[in-house]
Amino acid sequence: MAAKGRKAPVSGLVLQLYRRPDSDPARVGFTVTKKVGNAVVRNRVRRRLREVVRRVEADTPLSGFDLVLIGRGATRDRAFDALVADFRKALKLCMRDL
Fold it and tell me: How confident is the model at residue 90 (pLDDT cuts 50, 70, 90)?
């Protein structure tokens, strides 16, 4: 499945986007490895990414896609507004060729 999707690495995160054949609401998954930190830090990064998706999806509803956001070490310390901008940029890069 990964070979069929698009991948956009940006400063604060990596976005993998896969098109689905239906038009159901987007499904979103989050991945944060142990390289980022201990369990408390990884969960904090996951919560930050979840809120980023919630804010962006309120403006631009996504349907017919699977998204995977991969947290990086930079996600932990990055300003929240910068993370939102990173996610918007990654979405734009992934959807450019669809």
Answer: very high
Residue-wise pLDDT for 9-58, tens only, equals 999 999 999 998 998 999 999 999 999 999 999 999 999 999 999 999 98
Tokens 């300003």: give the residue: 79
Proportion of the chain in helix, strand, coil states, percent, rounded to 5: 45, 25, 30
Q: What is the pLDDT of residue 60?
A: 84
For 46, the domain range is 2-95
How many domains, the chain?
Answer: 1
- The token duo for 9 is 């690495």
* Three-state DSSP state, 27: strand
Give the domain CATH number at 57. Answer: 3.30.230.10
